[in-house]
Design a protein that fits this description.
The strands form four sheets. Strands 1, 2, 5, 6, 7, 8, 9, 10, 11, 12, 13 and 14 form a twelve-stranded mixed beta sheet that branches. The radius of gyration is 24 Å and the shape is elongated. 0% of the residues lie in helices and 42% in strands. It has strands at residues 4-8, 18-22, 26-27, 33-34, 38-41, 45-50, 53-62, 68-76, 82-84, 89-90, 110-118, 122-130, 140-143, 181-185, 192-196, 200-202, 205-214, 223-224, 229-235, 241-244, 253-254, 260-265, 276-281, 287-290.
């Protein structure tokens, strides 16, 4: 049996590196003894937003020039985190120019790009090097439990059929030197910025403009929050909503590509400076403001 051991951790903004090694030799499909595969990862780089999460790209290096790097488990809190591609990222023979990658001078000869979607900016990922791409697509979802509690996730239990380098992989809890796990340290989702306009007559309705932005996350600047579902509430029970300029697939209020949406009310239910408006973007905190009218 071979065991993954951690020799360093993934760094944060200082781009410290994480290294995990498959200890001992292993038997591959032709029966020969192969050298263990080593992993390293550069600091996760935030590249975009999505509702409630920050998307990072992560450069993972290996000391082989072939195959795939496959995330097989993710420990995160909250469990909405995910990492992919679940089927595995192909190993390239050059590092990525747009990402901090482990240096070839340190013996790395292959690099793969993973995409990490995170709420908290902290997670532990278990990786495997495979000879063939897996059939599962999408992302590996976050799990707030130790990924080693489910032996069915062990990719090395059947080296003759699954394309891995063979042998059993033992997972350990993410403390100290953890087996086969790298600690990801990135940017947390900082929430939304919500701008509320004034109540304005719009034809036979009363309109209200809302503009929503993703708050900045480290070097990733604030940007319009497109396609984000909004929940509206009022204190006391307030105006009757009759429609919006952009409608989601389930009929709810959702922002457009510019992070904007106009909400329309029955004018007979609207009073100025009386109601508190509660706007809750998907995955974010509730913004509270007072409904005012144009003078």
């Amino acid at each position: 049996m071979r065991q993954l051991t951690m020799t360093a951790l993934v760094g944060s903004a200082l781009a410290a590196l994480a290294v995990a090694t498959l200890g001992g030799g292993c038997v591959i499909n032709d029966g020969t003894d192969a050298e263990p595969v080593r992993f390293a990862a550069g600091a996760p780089t935030p590249v975009s937003f999505e509702p409630g999460r920050v998307v990072h790209d992560v450069c993972v290096a290996v000391d082989v020039d072939h195959g795939y790097v496959r995330p097989i488990a993710l420990t995160a809190d909250p469990a909405q985190d995910g990492i992919g591609p679940a089927e595995g990222a192909q190993v390239a023979d050059l590092p990525f120019a747009d990402l901090p990658c482990p240096d070839a001078a340190d013996g790395w000869i292959g690099w793969a790009r993973l995409e990490w979607h995170t709420v908290s900016g902290r997670a532990v990922v278990s990786l495997d090097h495979t000879l063939t791409q897996g059939t599962t697509t999408g992302e590996v979802g976050g799990d707030t439990t130790d990924p080693g509690t489910d032996p069915g996730t062990d990719p090395g239990t059947d080296p003759g059929t699954d394309g891995t380098d063979g042998g059993d992989v033992i997972f350990a809890a993410p403390v100290g030197a953890s087996s086969g796990q790298l600690i990801l340290d990135g940017e947390r989702f900082a929430g939304y910025e919500v701008d509320v306009g004034a109540l304005t007559p719009v034809g036979s309705y009363t309109g209200l403009a809302l503009d929503v932005r993703f708050a900045a996350a480290g070097a990733l600047a604030a940007e319009p929050a497109d396609g984000v579902a909004l929940g509206l509430g009022f204190l006391p029970e307030g105006p009757t909503v009759v429609g919006s300029s952009t409608v989601g697939p389930n009929g709810g209020i959702v922002t457009d590509l510019a992070g904007h949406v106009d909400v329309f009310f029955d004018p007979g239910t609207v009073e100025c400076d009386l109601f508190a408006l509660l706007v809750t973007p998907d995955g974010g905190a509730t913004d509270v403001s007072t409904l005012t009218c144009d003078p």
